Amino acid sequence: MSLWLTVCVGAEATALPAPAMPQSRTVDSLRQLLAQPQADTRRVILLCQISDQLWTQRTDSAAVYAIKALTLARRIGYPHGEGEALNRLGAALRESNLARSLELFQESLRIAKATKDRALEAQNLRSIGIIYVYLRDREQGLAYYFRALRLGEALRDERRMVIDLSNIGLAYDLFNELDSARMYQERAYALARRIRTPTNYILYGLGNVARKEGKMKEARAFYRESIAESNKVRHLRSLNFANVGMATLYQQTGRLDSSIYYARVGCQAAQTNGFLRGVLNASTLLTQNFKARNRPDSALKYQSLMLVMKDTLFGQEKVMRLQSLNYREQQRAQEAAANEASLKSRYRTYALVGGVIGLLALTALLGRHASQQQRAKEALEQSLAELKTAQDQLVQREKMAFLGELTAGIAHELQNPLNFVKNFAEVSTDLVDEIAGDHRDPARNAGLEQEILAGLKQNLQKISQHGQRATSIIKGMLEHSRTGTGQREATDLNALVEESLRLAYQGLRTKEKDFTAELSTELAPALPAVSVVPQDLSRVLINLFTNAFHAVQQRQRQSPDPAYRPAVTVSTQAVPGGVEIRIGDNGTGMPEKVKAKIFQPFFTTKPVGEGTGLGLSLSHDIVTTGHGGTLAVESEEDEGTQFVLTLPV
Amino acid sequence: MQILVVDDETDVRDLFMQRFRREIRSGELSFSFAFSGEEALTFLRAHHSEVLIILSDINMPGMSGLELLSYVKEEFEMPPTTMMMITAYGDDQSYQQAMALGANDFLTKPVDFGVLKDKLLQLLP
């Protein structure tokens, strides 16, 4: 598998041209320095250094210090500090907000250029390169890295060069260009050893190259060294990388238990640090391993973690990729327009000169013009196709997430009834044992015997009830997957509404004989026939009516006010482009918290066993996916609820 | 010893009454039941000096078991109440949260009644 790796080291830590600040200073000693009286400019630099130290441990804390530094630098008008702080903030936000991070680096780069701060410039070139490598833009990413490296060479900053060399190696590794990857990592390693700087990332990079070349023993040794060094310098990011590398290696060699162990350690390190990409890499491995080990519950746990990470990370990356695509597209269009304009003016000149030669030239130019237009069109079509793919992928991901949510829901929902079945069966076995032992007892107790028999009967009933409960959960599930198989036909909605209202009311009255409610219908007489699947839509309506009845019934039970009259209303009317059905009740209403969740599968406010929590989610599915309509809810606590269903004609 | 069991599944009552039939008959243990966090609080406010152990489910509609735990720890310092949390999710996060809020023990569903019985009997004065 390919690793979604990042390429960054304690890079930010080496950016400061402050020789009086040895790198080994801990956060605590920096904080102590900060507590002493200092010049404000010095405080800015100290805050930046604290941010650097925290970055390897907790990204969010690093962001806090970067913001402090930025605020102070701006207040005292200290451009160098402002640039340094902007770069730190960018690094800390790189996981959660890639676009903002890029903006911050660019702003910092502008300041660096304006103040001729070449170390800061090199730093930002590297930071921007990292973002392009994240976006899998090989050309741009490497271009920025090499500019950073050349600037480092010009500055004779060897620490900086070590990191840039290693970053270049990791980028080549990402694009599977192993020879280049190894060459740059080896250069980085030699230099790092000579000037005695950390090699935690380099060792990881060397491990990757060895692993991809199939030299597993060598790779294991590199990863092991990287883990040891990362632990020593408390660098949670490289600790994540090296552990994930090791886990990948063990996965490739079929040693799943070891792979799970290392992936877990890696996952934990990344979670502590707030390093989403690292969490993603580790949880991807864990999901695969647990699936292969046939442990669906653990697999599901990491799969959901993986989905969350993917959403956060790739959502923003996709947007950025599309944005840069659009930008390039605009540039192309502008070039094409400029070409066209210049062609036109040339065309006029040639026409004035006239003659056969002119005409020939004109023909040639027109041909070129056409081919340029053709190219612009192709580019446009290509970016359109890319947009379409991205959209399809988003839809697919949504479906997968829904499926995952559903699977987890079923597992959880079935757990309770099954536990009861198991427990009541076990306790019944005990009762049978007791009564059997009691029989041999001459002084047996008839009362106790009766009690035990009554208990046994009750338990068997419970077992049956909970079995039934499990069955209805599964039935509801199957219905979810079966919707959409019926045929659409032109339907009189008013008739369907009346029928559904009657069915729902009677359905409830067979269970609750005392229940009555005022029903009022307001059906538009000249409603156009709508093409729907009648049985599906009828289920939606029955479900909405049943919910309305429950709401009024509950309100009546909760506050027995003699003046309260339960009422359910329904109206139909034609609206532009479709038909609207409103179903209202004067029941309990819903707080915002509940309202936000009612369309989610397995969400229910009914007592255990009464609702599966699938009704509204299923209804929503039928209306939106099945019929291209909308289903919305308006609700006020203690006032009532109204569902608004619209269907296109 | 008075034990309050909090769970939204009402059948938990029948199950506990049968599982601990002997202990209940001998008077060693005595159970009360509440079917929501809110109900549990009302009960505790009326009987709080009697209840020594609370066994609560975490995932309940309305007030969750963790919310209940934090209320109990805040409101009923004396006499010290032993709070055991039960959850269907054996996940680390619920465990950490429960422990941070001051839970005394943590059990995973399906509850092993043998283990639970031992734990309860150990707490007997």
From TrEMBL, chain A:
Annotated ranges, domain Histidine kinase: 409-649
UniProt keyword Amino-acid biosynthesis, yes or no: no
Keywords noted in UniProt: Coiled coil, Kinase, Phosphoprotein, Transferase
GO MF term set: phosphorelay sensor kinase activity
Coiled coil regions in record: 370-400
Catalytic reactions of this protein: ATP + protein L-histidine = ADP + protein N-phospho-L-histidine
EC number(s) from the headed UniProt entry: 2.7.13.3
SUPFAM superfamilies in UniProt: ATPase domain of HSP90 chaperone/DNA topoisomerase II/histidine kinase, Homodimeric domain of signal transducing histidine kinase, TPR-like
PANTHER family: SENSOR HISTIDINE KINASE (PTHR43065), TWO-COMPONENT SENSOR PPRA (PTHR43065:SF42)
The protein, known as: histidine kinase
UniProtKB/TrEMBL annotation, chain B:
Organism for this UniProt entry: Hymenobacter arizonensis
Lineage of source species: Bacteria, Pseudomonadati, Bacteroidota, Cytophagia, Cytophagales
TM annotation in the entry: none
UniProt modified residues of type 4-aspartylphosphate: 57
Alphabetized PANTHER family for the sequence: RESPONSE REGULATORY DOMAIN-CONTAINING PROTEIN (PTHR44591:SF3), STRESS RESPONSE REGULATOR PROTEIN 1 (PTHR44591)
InterPro entries associated with the record: Bact_response_regulator, CheY-like_superfamily, Sig_transdc_resp-reg_receiver
Keyword Phosphoprotein among UniProt keywords: yes
Occurrences of domain Response regulatory (ranges): 2-124
Gene3D superfamilies recorded: 3.40.50.2300
Protein name: Response regulator receiver domain-containing protein
Biological processes per GO annotation: phosphorelay signal transduction system
Cytoplasm as UniProt keyword: no
One Pfam match: Response_reg
Keywords associated with the record: Phosphoprotein
